[in-house]
From TrEMBL:
<dbReference type="Pfam" id="PF00472">
    <property type="entry name" value="RF-1"/>
</dbReference>
<dbReference type="GO" id="GO:0072344">
    <property type="term" value="P:rescue of stalled ribosome"/>
</dbReference>
<protein>
    <submittedName>
        <fullName>Aminoacyl-tRNA hydrolase</fullName>
        <ecNumber>3.1.1.29</ecNumber>
    </submittedName>
</protein>
<comment type="similarity">
    <text>Belongs to the prokaryotic/mitochondrial release factor family.</text>
</comment>
<dbReference type="GO" id="GO:0004045">
    <property type="term" value="F:peptidyl-tRNA hydrolase activity"/>
</dbReference>
<keyword id="KW-0378">Hydrolase</keyword>
<dbReference type="GO" id="GO:0003747">
    <property type="term" value="F:translation release factor activity"/>
</dbReference>
<dbReference type="InterPro" id="IPR000352">
    <property type="entry name" value="Pep_chain_release_fac_I"/>
</dbReference>
<dbReference type="InterPro" id="IPR045853">
    <property type="entry name" value="Pep_chain_release_fac_I_sf"/>
</dbReference>
<feature type="domain" description="Prokaryotic-type class I peptide chain release factors">
    <location>
        <begin position="18"/>
        <end position="34"/>
    </location>
</feature>
<dbReference type="GO" id="GO:0043022">
    <property type="term" value="F:ribosome binding"/>
</dbReference>
Amino acid sequence: MVTTAALLEREAQITAIRAQGAGGQNVNKVSSAVHLRFDVAASALPAELKQRILALSDARVTTEGQVLIKAQRYRTQQANRRDALARLRELVEQAARPVLPRKATRPTRASRERRLQAKRLRGAVKALRGQPRD
């Protein structure tokens, strides 16, 4: 039995790139940032989980069905690689959690009465703004 974490790590394509932003003399020479690309459709994940991942409203999931993660938080490539894989696992776990249906509730009698009382008071204030009566 292959765990989901091992499966994700095996199927993810990781490319080292140069990190953005300010740095020292080293920043222009070392590729410490990481691009992680994970093809959801081609993965060995269950079909239902694939659909849930693709249905997420997440900017990291492309219209082509790929998950793109850029990790440049740390100074070393290995730390950024671990970070990118952890973020991918987190995204998959988020998609795997079932969505609980919302239970409809009704307002209490007291809350309805408070709302109506507030409306009456507001209406009275607005009525005072009108033309004076004879």
